[in-house]
Amino acid sequence: MDKTTKINVKDLNLFYGDFQALHNVSMDIREKEVTALIGPSGCGKSTFLRTLNRMNDLIDIVKIDGDINYDDKDIYSQWDVIELRKKVGMVFQKPNPFPMSIFDNIAYGPRTHGIKNKAILSDIVEKSLQQASLWEEVKDRLHKPALGLSGGQQQRLCIARVLAVEPDVVLMDEPTSALDPISTSRIEDLIDELKQNYTIVIVTHNMQQAGRISDKTAFFLHGKIEEFGPTDEIFFNPSSPKTEEYISGKFG
Amino acid sequence: MKSSKSVLEVAVEKILLISAFISVISVVFITVFIFKEGLPLFTRVSPLEFLFSSNWAPTADPPQYGILSFIMGSVWVTFGALLLSVPIGLAVGIFMAEMAEGRFAQILRSVVELLAGIPSVIYGLFGYIAISPVIRRLFDSPTGLGVLTASIVLAIMTLPTIINITEVSLRAVPGELKEGSLALGATHWMTIYRVMVPSARSGILAGIVLGMGRAIGETMAVLMVAGNAVTMPRGPLSLTRTLTMNIATDMKYAADYHAVSLFTTGIVLFVFILGINSLVQYLMKKTVKEEM
Amino acid sequence: MSSAEVLNPPVSKGRKEVVSSPQSRKLRMQEKVAKGIIWGLAALTIAILVWIVGYLMVKGLRYNNMTPYNVTPYVERVIDLDGTEDDLVFIINRGVREQDIEVDGLRTLFNKRRNENWGFYNEQNLRAQPVVNENAGDFSVQVKDFILAGEDLDDYRGYVEKASSWDEVISYVGGTEGAIGFLPASEAADLPRDVKVLGVRRKAIAVNPSVLMIKDSRMLRELTDKQAEKIAAGEVSNWMEVGGTDLPLTLLDSENIEVNMEALQSTEGAVMLTDYRYVAEYGVRSVPVLRHETGWNLTWHFITEAPARSGQWGGISYIIINTFFLILFTILFSAPVGVMAAIYMVEYAKQGRLMRILRMGTETLSGIPSIVFGLFGFIFFVRILGMGIGFISSTLTVTLMVLPTIIRTSEEALKSVPQSFREGSLALGATKLQTIIKVVLPAASPGILTGIILAVGRTVGETAVLIYTLGSNYDLVSGPSSSARVLSLHLYMLFSEALSFDRTFATGAVLVILILLTNFSATFMMKRMNKNSGM
């Protein structure tokens, strides 16, 4: 494989005050792959994901120690956090469209980053919605409130909103856990398509989902990476007995 | 469950019900009596003349009962106050909800509570002694009293209302929206003013309207600083009399229909306040709906 | 929260370029400016409160005035009278708070009015009682001349007490409230403890009328105490130096009064520092001199003495007591009703129409301006129910006003009592009423108390509603229909009658302190409540 490393994490330790949530986590995330993070609740997978675009900065008591490089540059000392978050976008567990029109939701990012031209904005909105395969459903009501969409549509809107700022990496924090099965499968299809152009890191509780969509899987346990490797290996030939136990549904 | 409640329990429940109804009864009584006392004026003057004439000479012969200048006085000082207090109140509300940390936040919170607790006569005294000389010097006005001074005093008085409700509304904005915006690379400030404030707008608006109600209804502070001139206000430096001031001042010596006209002034004030209150209720309900 | 940029980078990797863009730098700049402005406005809010409270406290605690007098601030405790062997000393009863008095004041005390009161000089409501020694011969005559300052009265007025010896004067002054008398200095060497010496200010700046004339649209109106000192010391050569017109200043000696008075009358720009009585006697003019008067405004006396003369004299003790009465009775009426209403709304009422009506009633009531409550109280309690302007009418009106505050906070407090408390009690076989009284109310009591404290704060500050329901009598409240004043009302009355700003401020300071106290206790209760519910 000649895919280059997009994000490189080395010896990451993360503390919530006195509590250590991540222990010596190291991981290479490669370009245009889907990396799934699995593990029982509270194992640190979401915390880890949020560290990648520095969303943990929002919590005062979080202290971080270790290296995280994006494009070979340290995300804390060599990336402006605004630029980093532009490059490393994030989709959340619960769809969170802003209380404004569909158009304004998508245009929010580009506008923030200085694009004012209406025609360019319209292009971006259309392109992003198409990429998120939402365009056909909403093209006639772009100026209606986004809160009028269904849950699944809202989540695709949020994905489109991330795509509109042209990121490299899309982080997804259990993006389908709040959705119905049909919407979930649409999002999974979407992830499969997006992988052509984007590097995706996804946290999921759903083992089958991880198996279906990811190239690599990391199994987190008690804040440590128990096992990390190609998804097939993790699922069919795990080296750690704990991984096997978890995947076969013995705990978690 | 047994269906037989003891006599005591039933009696207590009735007493509690009556207590709960005292406020409703008071509102009804206040409404009825203010209207009953004030409406007879319209046997002497038409409602239109009362509202739209600025000729107030209740002790002249024939007496004139036009309160337009007082309505305008109330409008001037209220909007003047909001003009000053809304930007500050919004900013401080944002500060309390999003930026304040630790000791400073605590201090600011107590400050806002205290500002809300200071009696209006104190504000009036302060306005007269400390603010009016500044106005006098800055704008070369003879007394330093009037619309502007009253507006400044009222602005300080309405500040706590606006700050508190802005803060509460901003805190009610779901955290996911904030995260969503930040994750797109927006700065904290951008997130506040492009996402959070628009999301909280109904609540914030309710706060502003509530502040407006406070300003229109305020009596003592304006009475001490607005100059109490029975003329149409012409600008920020002109002396003025508001609806509340008209009641408070003339009540001292009013007799017959003059006294009735003060209750009629009370009706106008009352209707203003009721309108404002229902607007607040409507906005608050809208906020609750939006949050769901 | 905004610590995104605060967090230290975990590892320093030398100084490499940071990936950024002009747009993000612009955004960051924008954020910095906006947040800076917001910080500024937050600081401004604090500054406003500090300004208001600080201003009132400073003004309320201390007075600091420049008051014009006909005489200079120079105080003599032992007066060297022209034409007497012995010096003169004025003594007063120790209970009089005056330290020194202008000579004009002595004249009124001994001769002018029957009911002369020390209040005119120090706001102490105390009748002055002058006493003289009938058997003092020439000394007494000289003093009379001095006190009367040229007025031709045959004798002291009848109400002036007569004593027959200096010892009798001393014992009379010592034993009589508000008494004032005088002695030769030789008799005043060893005064008893209940008598003290009263200083006298009698030096006037007598001038030739030309000094006070308008010239080049300038005119000398008054001198400060410092300027008067400089003139007396001979350091001023032209009236321009002390704010007067362009006129050379000639300082005359006050010895040999007749010759020098003639010189004063004939020399333009002439000035003489002399006993004030000669100003009247020789018909010359004197320049008012400002005295810098400073001291405690909010004193123990102010708080503990009864008000007199519309609040100009005495203190505010009755008014403070009235305020507490108003608070007490308002809470006595409003707290039970409010808490019971809240209990009904939380524990009994079902969601629906009834609840909507109750809630709307409370909310509307809380929005009604106090002047409208005042109108209602005036028409309903005062007139229709015939209670008259007085304590009971105002208490009932204020009760209605604070009701929503108590209902709302009690409602919140009751709601915050966990459902499991009620279930636990009901499961043990307690009735609903027993559960409420024994379990719910105690658990909600800190919250309810907070509401009551807030209502106290509101009652203390309320004014507009009281003007036409409580009236303006500054006596102690004596019954349900007695008119009275409370602090806020007293402040407004002092203000609107322009009687004394110093006393207005002192009253304001007391009011502010009361508000601070209620506020802090409410915060304290709230903290305790949070702690309790946290356990």
Provide the domain count of chain C.
4
Distance between the termini of chain A: 33 Å
**Radius of gyration of chain C, taken over Cα atoms and rounded to an integer in Å:** 34 Å
Basic shape of chain A: globular
The assigned structural class of chain C equals alpha/beta
CATH classification class of the largest domain in chain C: Mainly Alpha
Q: How would you classify the quaternary structure?
A: heterotrimer
- Taken as a percent bin, the fraction of beta residues of chain C is 5-15%
Count of separate DSSP helical elements of chain A: 10
Q: Report helical residue fraction of chain A.
A: 25-40%
Q: What gross morphology of chain C would you assign? A: elongated
Give the beta-strand count of chain A: 10
Order of neighbouring strands in the sheet with most strands of chain C: 3-7-2-6-4-5
Tell me the Rg of chain A in angstroms: 18 Å
Helix content of chain C: 40-55%
**End-to-end span of chain C in angstroms?**
27 Å
Describe the structure.
The complex is a heterotrimer of chains A (252), B (292) and C (535). In chain A, 36% of the residues lie in helices and 27% in strands. Chain A has ten helices and ten strands. In chain B, strand 1 (56-57) and strand 2 (64-65) form a beta hairpin. Chain B has helices spanning 7-38, 47-52, 68-99, 102-117, 120-139, 147-171, 175-183, 188-199, 201-217, 220-225, 243-250, 256-291, and strands spanning 56-57, 64-65. The longest helix of chain B has 36 residues, at 256-291. Chain B has two domains: 2-43; 68-291, Orthogonal Bundle (MetI-like fold), CATH 1.10.3720.10. Chain B has a two-stranded antiparallel ribbon. Chain B is globular and about 75 Å long. Chain C is α/β, with parallel strands linked by helices and 535 residues long. In chain C, strands 3-7-2-6-4-5 form a six-stranded mixed β-sheet, with helices on both faces. Chains B and C meet through helix 1, helix 3, helix 4, helix 5 and helix 6 of B and helix 1, helix 10, helix 11, helix 12 and helix 13 of C.
